[in-house]
Structure formats: structure tokens, C-alpha cells
Amino acid sequence: MHFVTGGAFNGKSGWVKKFYNLENIPYQWVSAYKGETVNGFHISGIVVLEGIEVWIRDWLKESDAREVRTRWQNYLRGWLDWEKEDNHRKIVLIGSDISKGIVPMEADDRKWRDVTGWAYQDTAAQSNRVDLIWYGISQKIK
Hints:
By secondary structure, the protein is α/β, with parallel strands linked by helices. It has helices at 12-19, 52-60, 65-84, 107-126, and strands at residues 2-6, 27-31, 46-50, 90-96, 129-134, 137-140.
């Protein structure tokens, strides 16, 4: 599993496409920004899941923080198992960093920021590689 994070509109998606040479290989791209969900893959190769923070925000509308974090941890375990079934499989997770800047005034926004941070910690811990992207430049941090 590979986790890619950084600021919004800082080139994470473009970097992933270039890093994995996605123009020349089959892959599946699932984007929360387009309203897509994390359920099911139809390829045995690279699967890119983009917009972690959006899925977290949406789930918080239905569940409390603990349930959302548990749900995320369950997805991570399932994706790791999926990867282990075939050496050609790879999950790439992309999430925008929403932890910097002014702490939100609204309680729901603070909860979203907190749960997203916890989910990113869980993701980084489970990932084989973690890259931070700022202004299109990568820094490998794990």
C-alpha cells in the first residue's frame, strides 16, 4: 500500500500518474471528488483511491468518530489482504492534508479534521511507502 498526501491542488494526482506510469498500464482510479465509493475493484493491478478526506466527511454525517475510524481501519485491512493475493496488486491512497492552518470554529469541522488525521496516521502505519507532495515535488517520508 502506498499513501500519498499533501496540500489540496499541490499535484498529488499528477505525481501518482507519473510515478506509476499510468498512461501505459491498466489501472483503476476511484475518486471521492467525483462521488465514487471505495467498494469493489475490477482490476488486478494498480488501484488508486483518491479523496480520503471526502469519504471521511461523508461517513461522519452518518456515524460517530469512533465508528468512522473503525470503518477506515477495516478498509485498510481488506485492501492489504487484497494486495497480498497477487503480487501485481497495489493500492495507492491519496488524501489532502487538512490539518494545517487555523483550527475550524465549527465542531463538526473540527471533528472531521481530527478523524481525518487519525485515519491518515492509520494509513501511514499500514503503508509500505508514504510520500508528501507539495507544489508537485515529492518527499518520501516512509
